[in-house]
Amino acid sequence: MYPILLKLGPLTLYSYGLMVALGFLSGIILAAYLAKRSGIKPELILDIAPFVLLGSLVGARIFYVIEFWTEFRGNPLEIFAIWKGGLVFFGGLLFAILGLMLAVKLFKLNFWKTMDILAPATALGYAIGRIGCFLNGCCYGIVTKVPWAVKFPTETVLRHPTQIYASLSGLLICGILLLVFFKYRKFDGLVLVLGLLLYGTYRFLIEFLRVNPKYLFNLSGAQWLSLVMILLAAALYFKLRRR
To answer: Is there a domain that residue 31 lies in?
Structure first.
């Protein structure tokens, strides 16, 4: 693994932080392109990007700190060291949507159309960001003997490279959403609904291979949130289709 890519005196370039930054940048570029194809000025994506970026980082970090508080109890200042790793996608998604709602109101945009634009961009950014998890050696899976198993620096056994599974899943979801966006979108919000459904399903399944705390019915917190996301997607589909 390569958690640190470069050190120049006091300057340290962390692979996790770099890949997360590249993920955001790639997502913004794709969203600007989709906005243009939707008749929306691409510049507006740059206007709302800070709201989404700040919201996603704050939310993702808050959820991680809550779930793994024991890591920060002895050194609270580490809470702010997000470049070293430690973000929860569900928290980032929730706060990003809150930030987006504020931006949509300020810039007078159509919320559902904007969400359709951002859904594929989010999947792309997620796929790139998960590569940072692999390079950082975090978010790995359970012990396995599959031929492509990986031995991470802090481990003595071979484990599933669930970060790579996540990255490939993100790219697949992005591709499906783009196909629907350009050819099969019958109403605003459909791409978002499909994105929620696909991510929720993927995340629920991959959690069986990940090392995360288990709760009720031996399911992780992410799995319970995934079920909520799937139900939300179904409810939104019927609501938006009727509109």
So the answer is: yes
In a domain, 239, yes or no: no
Q: Is residue 128 part of a domain?
A: yes
Residues 6+ apart with CB under 8 A from 143: 157, 158, 159
Distance CA 100, CA 49 (A): 8
How many domains does the chain divide into?
1
Task: Of 3-7, 39-43, 146-150, 155-159, give the lowest mean pLDDT range.
Answer: 3-7
pLDDT digits (tens, 9 = 90+) for 184-227: 999 999 999 999 999 999 999 999 999 888 889 999 999 999 99
Are 149 and 158 in contact by the 8 Å Cβ rule? The answer is yes
Q: Which residue has the tokens 């791409």?
A: 191
Q: How far apart are CA 152 and CA 158, in angstroms?
A: 7
- Range of 112's domain? 4-180
Residue 4, classed as helix, strand or coil, is strand
DSSP state of 212: -
Hunting for tokens 């599959």 — which residue is that?
146
Residue 105 is assigned to a structural domain of this protein = yes
Task: Please give the structure tokens belonging to residue 177.
Answer: 């959403």
Ordered alpha helix ranges (H), 147-220: 162-179, 190-206
Residue 14's H or E segment, with its range, is strand 11-14
Please tell me the distance from the alpha carbon of residue 40 to that of residue 45, in angstroms, as a whole number: 9
Residue 191's φ and ψ, nearest 5 degrees, are -65, -40
Going by C-alpha positions, the residue among 28, 54, 48, 157 that lies closest to residue 107 is 48
- Does the reported pTM lie above 0.85? yes
> What's the residue count for the chain?
243
With a CB cutoff of 8 Å and minimum separation 6, the contacts of 25 are: none
